[in-house]
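BUG-354 | component: ligand-complex export | severity: low

The export step for 2-OXO-4-methylpentanoic acid jobs runs without errors, but we want the raw record kept on the ticket for reference. Input record follows.
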Amino acid sequence: MMETMEIPVTRVKRSRLAEIDFNHLPFGKFFSDHMLEADYADGEWKKVSIKPYQPISFEPSLMALHYGQSIFEGIKAYRLQNGEAVIFRPYDNLKRFNISADRMEMPAVPEDIFIEGMRQLIALDREWIPARDEYSLYIRPFMFATDTALGVKPSETYKFMILLSPTGPYYAAPMKIYVEEKYTRAAPGGVGFAKNAGNYGGSLKAAAEARAQGYDQVLWTDAFEHKWLQEVGTMNVFFVFGNTVVTPSLEEGTILEGVTRDSVIRVLREQGMRVEERKINIDEVTEGHRSGKLTEIFGSGTAATISYIKELRYKDYSMHLHVDGYQTAPAAKKILTEIREGKRPDIHSWLVKV
Ligand code: COI
């Protein structure tokens, strides 16, 4: 056990908890009473504090606004059957956060600020964890450059913060997606594996064009041939061919190493499914659909949890899938939900107690 770091706390005068309708929680719209803040300067993290959720003010020359040194994570906390609050795999998010930081030439955030700070913040706002099925407390750690100057170089100062947002499902209904052939999200050597803000800003035009055509999101493809499948807007993607599940591999560095992706792979393997992490081409998917071997497509993400895909379109070919007959995705979802609710043994020690 790590020694508990003393974080100074300024409490709200009056909680906003009673103003929130916990039966209607759109994703990421409401924030809990408190937030965590820490500053990096002179090569070290300092001024870690928990304070009321409030605006922050900066000079307009704030470097993050101009050159995009800005990264984030998404994590969830749940309430167990016995009332205890738990965080799902936060150490994996810490690891990925610092991989993103390294790629963006930003400092690492130490465990005692990221994990211990998160635990103390959630402990303070534990009443904000929703109890409803499919609801959770979404945790948003993020870091951005705070130098005020216009030269293009790594900032020397940064701010790290954690916000908490009680939240419902991200994608409520099965999704319609098309295969993106015009825009590119990531290329080898780029920043596709990092959770930097710009990856999401750069995806919005493609998503808007998809929406204009009646689709929920796009399935990203490689930069050169637009054939090799990467990920969907805010999720990793899985294809089920009978007893074999295929998901794009990580080695090119063009997709996010999803924590939910890894959880799905592990629980499906434990159920005796064959799960292949490898390159997968759109032609394999369309052929699988034509022959009837392709039975499911689904996405995984912290915000999205496990989301079923009911239609995938490639050029003029629309692949309709029978979501009602899905077995693999619902099985993975059920197991993960039961672990999070404390109804199934947490054999991987994925739950971290608040
Ligand atoms: C997450 O799944 O936590 C994400 O960060 C995706 C999105 C909401 C940005």
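Assignee comment: Attached the raw record above. The mean pLDDT is 96.
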